[in-house]
Amino acid sequence: MPPFSHSQCLSICNALQNEPDFASLCMAFDQHLKQLFSTDQWAIFGLDSSKNTWSNFTDCHTSLVSGQSRRAIVLTLELKNALVSTIRDPQTCSGYFPKSGEWLLPFSLSNNKHFVVYLKLPLQLHIDEELQTHFSQVVTSSFKNAFLQKLLREEKADHSGVRHSLDKTLNDKNRLLEQFHTLHKISQRLWNTQSMDNMLHTAVYECVKALDFDRMAIFLLHSHSGLVKGTYGTDTKGKVVSEHHYVTSIHEHPIAQSTLDRKQLIAISEDTILTHGKDNVGYGWNGFISLWDGREPLGWIACDNLLSGTPLKDYHHQLLKFLGITLSQHLIHQRSQGELKTLNQSLEMRVAQRTTQLESANKMLEKLSREDSLTGLLNRRALDEIIDIEWRRAQRHQTPISMLIIDIDFLNNSMIYMAMPQVMTAL
C-alpha cells in the first residue's frame, strides 16, 4: 500500500468540513476510511470521569446511518495500556502505532469532556510526523466542531424548554392572581347576603360563572348525626338548581368521609368518571374541597370540568384551597348570624312577656290604690282625682257642679254593723 499523502489528508479535510451534523460527519469519515485504507475500524472513545474508564459511544452512529453492522472494535493490549495510563491526563493519549496500525487522536471540549478518535489502519502504513500532525488536527477539529454544534443545539433545546416552562409558570401565576381577585369580589358579594340560603345560592352562581371550573355543588354536614344535606348545585347544562331535597348519610360518600377523617383540605381526581346524582354523565377531573370551623367539619364543595373539559392546571390546587377557606368563613358568619338572630328573638319574646306582666301588675296596683279594701268602693284618693277632673270640666263648659253627701243613722246594731260593707256597697 502506498504511503499516506498530503492530498489524501486534504480530501478528507474538505469532505469533513461540509457535513451538517455529527451523524453525517461519522458517515463521511467512515466512507473515506474505506476508500483510502479499506478499513471501517474506527471509533470515538469518551472519558467517563465518574468511573475512570474510556467508553465507545460512536460506533452505533455509523451503523445506524449506513444501515450496516460493523465489526466490533478489538483493542490490542498496547492500546489498552495506553488508554488506561492516560485517564488522569487525557491529552497524553496520542500516537500512531505502526506495528498494530492503531492511531489515537485526542481532543477536549471546554466543559472538561475528553475524547479520543481511534483508527485501525493497515499494518506498517508509513505516515511521516508532519502528516500525522496535520491529519490529527483535521480529524480532531472536525469532530470537536461537530460535538460543539451538537452541544449548542442541545443547549438551545434546553433553553427553549426552560423558556417554555417559565412562560407557562408565569402565565399560571398571572391567571391565579386573576382568579384570586375574582374570588375576592365574590366574597364581598357574599358578605352582603341576608341569609344562609341566599349566600349558598350566590356562591354557586358566582363561582361557576367566573372561576376556572364548570360545575359546583355545596353539601352541608351535621357532624353529630352524620347527615349530609344538599343546598345548591349545577345540572349537566351548568344551570344552578336547588338540591335541598338531597339528604343522605356521610357513609354514602366514602371519598368525602376519608378526606374529612384525614383533615385534608382538598382531594382531586383526574381522568375519572363524572356523575350527576347516580348517573354517569362524562369524563374529566373533579375536586373535593372540605369546609371547616376549626376542627368541626361543616361540609364540602364538589366541582368538575364536565362542560368545557378544561384541563386541570397547577394553580387549581391553590385556587380550590382558597375557595374552601373563603366559603368556610361565610358559613361560620351566617351560622353565627342565625344563632344571634334566634337569641335576639328569644330575648325579645322574654322582654315582651315581662313587659305585659309588669303592665298588668301596675294596673292592679293602680286599682288597689284607688279602692277601699273593705268595701271595694273608690276611696278618698279617687274622690280627690274625680273632683279635680269634674271641677276642670265645669270650668271649661261653664256648668254647675253638685255633690251629694249622705249620712246613715241607726247602724249601732252589731249585726247591721257587720253587714255595713254590703250596705255601703248597695247604697
Structure, explained:
The protein folds into 3 domains: 6-156, Beta-Lactamase (2-Layer Sandwich); 193-341, GAF domain (Beta-Lactamase); 380-426, no CATH class. The chain is 50% helix and 20% strand. The protein has helices at 6-17, 22-37, 59-66, 77-85, 129-191, 196-210, 254-261, 316-369, 380-397, 414-418, 420-426, and strands at residues 42-48, 53-56, 95-97, 102-108, 114-120, 215-222, 227-230, 232-234, 240-242, 247-249, 266-276, 279-293, 296-304. The strands form 3 sheets. It has a 6-stranded antiparallel β-sheet, with helices on both faces. A 5-stranded antiparallel β-sheet has the order 2-1-5-4-3, sandwiched between helices. Strands 8-9 form a two-stranded antiparallel sheet. Helix 5 (129-191) packs parallel to helix 8 (316-369). The chain is rod-shaped and about 180 Å long. Mean pLDDT is 83; it is low at 60-69.
